[in-house]
Amino acid sequence: MFSYLDRFLIFLxxxxxxxxxxxxxxxxxxxxxIDFLAGILRVSDETLQPEQVTPALIRRYLSHLTxxxxxxxxxxxxxxxxxxxxxxxxxxGVLRDNPLRHISSPRREKRLPRVLYPAEAERLxxxxxxxxxxxxxxxxxxxxxxxxxxxxxxxxxxDTGDLDLAGGYLRVLGKGAKERGxxxxxxxxxxxx
Length: 193
Hints:
Residues 1-90 form the Core-binding (CB) domain. This protein is mainly alpha-helical and 193 residues long.
């Protein structure tokens, strides 16, 4: 199974252009499943073969994850990794039938994010202080996150060339390598200067 997994991970990187983090998460999720399935079948992880995986085993694995207290969204992520992996195996001719084809997904949990009150947001942004260059950097990071609502992963990917202080916007590379312009408020612009 591991040789197929290696090919799948290369496929994700090269053809799907998945982010390194996505590839790493898929690898972890599939390793976790391989451990469980191999244990149930009483074979080693290395000798487990894709054709040994049945819909009943996948349901048992999902039940095991639920019993472990895994939240629904994490379970959905693991299931998505396995669906992609087996879809890849079918496309490559390793399998004729996808054992996950008839496995339905549980509904995604919808939780509203906790909103910060203005006083809480102000305390958060001012927490680093301004007594050193590192503290100024941290404060600018918090100002940008608060002012724009971009993801931390998007912030980490920013470069100075993505910033237009005069125009008051950032060029952000989001999910799926999609680029978008995001307005930046005055406080964040000042913090970045």
